[in-house]
């Protein structure tokens, strides 16, 4: 064997050509990858302000005491419905390309939630969980991919998300010993996006800084999965005339309300 040979036997090696290939390989093997510089610095402050604005509206809609009772304080849901500005995150070209590598041509947005971590306050997201909760099966190909936008800096001080690598391929939560030795605490500058398999175990870190840490989580899923909330119903037809957004936002896979409606939908698809 020559000195330049790097392996022998019947081995195939993955070849990566760009940032998207690198990200995809890391997600497949580790369960996650970090892309920096996705949101330009000059847009971050506007995103922060809009997240806080949407949250204030939702807290007023439902009531702070009731939000607290169901552990929903400092979570803003379905941001796009309240402000179209958040559509930019969903349709970002790089994110769409990466999700397509895993889920194919037909996938939908399952949820879009902002997590607001206040200084020195616990957050209900600080428990280990998967973003497909209560699903502990192992699957050969992802059925859902997360794109988590870091709107503020993620660090050990601000309580950046903690991840347990490889657990997208494990049915059980590892031992405390394994977690202690192998968990990864994210250190990402604002504007980054964390891409991860939705089955990867993770949790929010504790924000011991003096600053708010905001992030916007997205789950893109295969259309057989029900959306966390009904985007088409909430959007009331908005964006449905655009073929790309029609599919991405879930208009094309709403549950029919009757047999007649199901058959009309099928007929319409056959005639297009």
How would you portray this structure in words?
With 272 residues, the chain is an alpha+beta fold. The chain has a single domain (19-229), classed as Jelly Rolls, CATH 2.60.120. It is 33% helix and 16% strand. The strands form two sheets. Strands 1-7-4-9-3-2 form a six-stranded antiparallel beta sheet, covered by helices on one side. α1 crosses α6 (93-103). The longest helix is centred in the first third of the chain and has 22 residues, at 41-62.
Structure at a glance:
With 272 residues, this protein is α+β, with helices and mostly antiparallel strands. Helix content is 33%, strand content 16%. The protein has helices spanning 19-29, 41-62, 64-69, 79-82, 87-91, 93-103, 176-182, 231-235, 243-248, 259-271; strands at 32-35, 75-77, 108-117, 144-150, 162-163, 184-185, 193-197, 202-203, 213-221.
What is the mean pLDDT? 93
Write down the CATH class: Mainly Beta
Low-confidence stretches: none
Radius of gyration: 20 Å
What is the strand content? Answer: 15-25%
**Tally of extended strands?**
9
CATH-assigned homologous superfamily:
q2cbj1_9rhob like domain
The assembly state of the depicted protein chains is: single chain
DSSP helix count? 10
**SSE ordering:** HEHHEHHHEEEHEEEEHHH
What class do helices, strands and sheet pairing give?
A: alpha+beta
Output the CATH topology.
Jelly Rolls
Provide the helix percentage: 25-40%
